Amino acid sequence: MELRQRLTLFAVTVAATPLVLGGCTTERKSGAGAQGRAAPPELTITPSERAQDVPLSAEVGTAVKGGRISAVRIIDDKGVQVAGEPREDGSAWVPSRPLQPRRTYTAEVTATGDSGKTTTRKTTFTTMPKPTKPAITSTLYFTDNQTYGTAMPVTLAFDPPISKEARADVQRRLFVKTNPPQPGTWSWLDDGSQAYYRAPDFWRPGTTISVRAGLGGLPIGKDWVGDADQSATSKIGRQVSLEIDNATKQMSVMRDGKLIRRIPVSLGKPSTPTSSGKMVIMEKHQYATFDTRGEPNGGYVVDVEDAQRLTNGGEFIHGAPWSEGDQGKTNVSHGCTNVSAAAADWLMNVTQVGDLVTFKGTEVQLQPGNGWTAWNVSWDEFVKGSALPVPAGLRPAPALAPHPGAVAGGSPAPAPSVTGD
């Protein structure tokens, strides 16, 4: 069945590289003569002095030769200090929230050399008026103070989609921190409607993930601007996964890699098959109404209990007492995974949003973007979707040359997914 309440995928418009706005201000050097002949560090900062119409997403760019940034202070025209933090590579200082329109800010940056000598530069700039260009709406599917499963991808959806030319600028404003560290990368769907962040392997239970999509006021191309600055911090819970095999009509429930229960299922019938692939639980509903009137192969309204969404297109796991006689034997649904009422209730107490659900042996393959499909590709394929260079430690190993007798192969293109009940 297909739930008539579909996920609304919105988009965010974003803009240019952090503040590459031009020249530098006059430097002020201190410590002259105190450290012998050692030269003070060379320091360049942006935006330039008296820069106008600076984007609200502005960062203070820093470039140092012969030292490191030792202090950054930004105040607005009312004397209030702006909170922020440096980028990991030290290339810029990022305000914690968008700057205010038509305000003047003063940034003072100090670099300290190995000798102890310092160089300080100061710049004053004015931000642009409130943007009048249409905003790209972004939706962050990662909520604050939650506990997610180990396959939870950080997912951003954009409406309208982000053009290929603008994705690098947007991606530069997407920040993820993990504790303990478990680095990953972002990857875009081909159409630019979604971007996912994950690591090469599933998150370790107990990991804390902090996300910021700093897109508010960010120029995206010539015609759009980012709509919002969104942040969330949540934790990863226990490791749970579900494996459903169409050949046996059984669901295997795994916890920490060990089988804890098998549950008979009825999947989509041949005319409305369930998708095969790696999905992630997106939502959980104690009660839901599936209204498919006006949908292909639909025309019915039914109330269900203990429903867990797997795709945007309407594939769920849910209690289906009407098909208990078929479960474990025959596929009779419209694409959903039917389990008994008792099993569905039990599953709701075991699973989490973000748990991996793997289907195999059905008639169609899961399509990219039909749900949170970050795990439905290998890591080698996933990193190809990044709009920015992937750090060396995360790049796939070079492919070995094939044996002379090897036969080239590959997976067929995914067939269209089907909604069901």
TrEMBL record:
Residues at the catalytic site: H318 (proton donor/acceptor), C336 (nucleophile)
Biochemical pathway: Cell wall biogenesis; peptidoglycan biosynthesis
Top-level taxon of the source organism: Bacteria
UniProt keyword list: Acyltransferase, Cell shape, Cell wall biogenesis/degradation, Peptidoglycan synthesis, Transferase
Listed SUPFAM superfamilies: L,D-transpeptidase catalytic domain-like
BP term (GO), one: cell wall organization
Domain L,D-TPase catalytic per the UniProt entry, residue ranges: 240-367
One Pfam family matching this protein: Big_10
Protein name as it appears in the record: L,D-transpeptidase catalytic domain
